[in-house]
Amino acid sequence: MTSGNSKLVNPFHFVLNNIPFAILLENKHRILEFVNQNFCHLFGFPLTPEQMVGTNCIVAVQMISRLFENPSGFVETVHQTVINHSPVSKELVPLANGQLYLRDYLPIFQDGQLEGHLWLYYDYTDAHKMELELLKTKQFYEKILHNIPADIVAFDKNHKYIFINQNSVSDPIVREWLLGKDDFDYVKIRNKDITIAEKRRAVFNNAIAERKPKEFIEKLEDKQQNVRYLLRKMHPIVDHNNKIDIVIGYGIDVSSIRNAEKVILQKEKNIEQVANLLSMVMIVIDQDHNIIFTNAAYESLFGYPAHDIIGKNLNSINNHELDFIIKDFDLYRSSQQIDSSQKKHQFVDKYGFTKHITYSFTPYVRTDVNELNFAVFINDVSDQYFAVSELQKIVDKERRLNELKSGFVNVVSHELRTPLSVIQSSAEIMEILNSNDKITKEDIALHVNRIINEIDGMHSLMEELLLVSKIESGKVEFKPYPQNLASFVKVLIDDLYAPNNELAIALEVKGHIRETTFDRMMMYHILKNLLGNAIKYSVGKKIPRIRIRYTNGAVLIIIADYGIGIPAKDTQKLFKAFARASNTNGIKGTGLGLLIVKYFIDFHKAEINFKSKVNKGTCMLLEIKDKHFTHAKNSIDRR
Q1: E-assigned strand segments in 201-312
Q2: What's the gap between Cα 522 and its chain centre?
Q3: DSSP string, 474-527
Q4: What is the DSSP track for 14-54?
Q5: Secondary structure of residue 115 in the 3-state scheme
Q6: What is the pLDDT of residue 542?
Q7: What is the dihedral of CA 587, 591, 597, 599, to 10 degrees?
Q8: How far apart are CA 101 and CA 21, in angstroms?
Q9: Would you state the pLDDT for residue 156?
Q10: What is the dihedral of CA 271, 273, 279, 285, to 10 degrees?
């Protein structure tokens, strides 16, 4: 080499020789100035890098062109690149054997003059395969989300869309356009009322501020004035650092519920109108002896308006004409039996007239609030005692009224107590309307829980799907550090189960306690899932137990229950997606919990094994080997 050439090579010699890529440096005359060992190995040159210095690079290009999928195209591309003197980055060059290389080119200038050409090659085959697998995984989960029958979106912490399923926006062009934008952009381009975006933003901000789900009913009207009602929910995803990176939004079309509620309300009004046309008095009393309904005939018989007693407790009413009902309730409390036969009673009304009545009690269970109610039917039969000639008319009237009573009881015991079969969530609003705003907070909480029961199941699946997606896409960071595992497990048990005396899980620790290196978030998820399964699948059995054993080089966590066990035929699929044991019918679960547990265990380079016997119980053994943590940390970092 000339001194001029040495000037080109020497400043870079050390760096170039240690870069883990195939490197070739040629001067402006296309003579090879430097090549590293990786280049010789990559292209199969039998010479050492020192022996190759001084080679004509045009000849070398011709020699290695046979390795590429398109030899002539390879030669021409190299030639044009040298002529153009323009840098090239990550140019894909496929080889004939199916491998893929990425190529970088950098022209070297000194004082404005071209002095040489630098080429870098590196194997891209495995990385390309990984990208394809990640794309396949992404498409798999997107397919699931796109086919869930609900509006599902994901927002960043600034309320910008980062995912929209096709049920929410069917037009793929609009979906793509919305990514990175917000509802204000959407209502503007669609010429919709801006209050839609303002309400959504307010609920979003509220969910972010309180770090808990918020829901609201949204009324939408199209150009044809067709009205839709959507139950929308904003659910912030909070990480173990109490930070929010994503908010899941989803909506369920509840138009049919609203329409059904209108029908139910109209039916209730119709029933009330029919009841008010009856000459028979009907009084409905709840299990706490509060009067919740009486018809207009009450005033005709007793001389007091119905609103004087509705909403009051039977024992607090000053109208002593109802004492006979109180006596029958006292009898029921002592015997727990209701005599539903027709009885007779007489009293002097407020005007001094003697009234003769017949009455009967009809107990029924209101399924919407799961409580026992009583319908009291009272007939005024005073005329029977004043005119023998009217006896037959009274008998006929009694017969007709009894028939009407039976029909009305049937209506009350079905239409007012049974929620719509197509939706379990209408009970709340039905009760509010039916009870004239006398419902308690406990009743509301009960029915809200029924309304969102199925939605919560979907959300659980979605959360676990998103977590699996984050794990498989490398977005879950592994943060292990040395800490006291026994104390960690004790705190976890106290947090989750100590408040419930029936689930007082005892922790047994054996061996010399020492610090164990683990990721707190992942370990919390692992143990919460395994303990949760142990409890869920052993209801009514002996409380599960947990033991920690410190051995040489490892820590063992043993969780044993006495529940339904796992059939032998199901053990091979236990830690796979959507896999559940065949004997778990009727017990809720997504089939993703143990898959995520296995992911987190693999992060720790730990092992999990189990023994199980049907109807005897299951024992889970988690083994954490101390010597693997350094290797695991490095492995995760490289990912």
Answers
A1: 214-221, 227-238, 244-253, 281-285, 291-294
A2: 18
A3: T-SPP--EEEEHHHHHHHHHHHHHTT-GGG---EEEES---EEEE-HHHHHHHH
A4: HHHHHSSSEEEEEETTSBEEEE-HHHHHHHT--S-HHHHTT
A5: strand
A6: 87
A7: 180
A8: 11
A9: 92
A10: 50
- Interatomic CA distance for residues 301 and 358, integer angstroms: 12
494 contact partners, CB below 8 Å, separation of at least 6: none
Looking at residue 395, its pLDDT comes to 59
Characterize 277-311 residue by residue with b for buried, 16 or more Cβ atoms within 10 angstroms of its Cβ, and e for exposed: ebebbbbbbbeebbbbbbbbbbeebbebebebbbe
Residue 482 backbone phi and psi in degrees, to 5: -65, 135
State the pLDDT at residue 635: 37
- Closest by CA position to 609, among listed 539, 559, 548: 559
Q: Cα–Cα distance between 118 and 85 in angstroms, integer?
A: 11
Residue written as token pair 């990385």:
127
Helix and strand counts by DSSP (H, E) for the chain: 21, 22
Contacts of 53 (CB under 8 A, 6+ apart): 1, 32, 33, 34, 35
Tell me which residue of 115, 124, 123, 122 sits closest to 34, measured CA to CA.
Answer: 115
Long-range contacts of 147-154 (CB under 8 A, 24+ apart): 148/458, 148/462, 150/250, 150/251, 150/252, 150/458, 151/230, 151/232, 151/249, 151/250, 151/251, 151/252, 152/248, 152/249, 152/250, 152/462, 153/248, 153/249, 153/250, 154/246, 154/247, 154/248, 154/249
| Identity of the amino acid at 257 | I
CA distance 173 to 186: 13
Question: Which single residue is written with the structure tokens 């490398």?
Answer: 474
> What would you report as the CA-atom Rg of the chain, rounded to the nearest whole angstrom?
39
In 52-150, which ranges are E strands?
88-94, 100-110, 113-123
| Strand order from edge to edge, sheet including 371-380 | 291-294, 281-285, 371-380, 354-366, 343-348
Give the C-alpha separation, 478 to 629, whole Å: 11
* φ and ψ of 259, to 5 deg: -65, -40
Token pair in block for residue 351: 């005007």
Interatomic CA distance for residues 24 and 12, integer angstroms:
12
What are residue 32's DSSP bridge partners? Answer: 26
First-residue to last-residue Cα distance in the chain: 42
Low-confidence ranges of the chain (pLDDT < 50): 1-9, 388-389, 397, 400-424, 426, 430, 433, 628-639
| Pair 596, 464: CB distance under 8 Å | yes
C-alpha separations of 158 from 182, 199, 262, 502 in Å: 9, 15, 38, 43
| Nearest partner of 486 among 434, 555, 533, judged by Cα | 555
Nearest to 155 by CA among 234, 253, 209: 234
User: Distance (Å, rounded) from C-alpha 12 to C-alpha 490?
Assistant: 58
Helical spans, DSSP H, in 278-322: 297-302
Q: Tokens standing for 190?
A: 């669609």
How many Cα atoms are found within 13 Å in the side-chain-facing hemisphere of 41?
Answer: 8
Cβ atoms within 10 Å of 629's Cβ, excluding its own: 19
Residue that has been written with the tokens 């138009």 in this structure: 255
101 forms bridges with which residues in the sheet? 93, 123
Is there a contact between 601 and 593 (Cβ–Cβ < 8 Å)? no
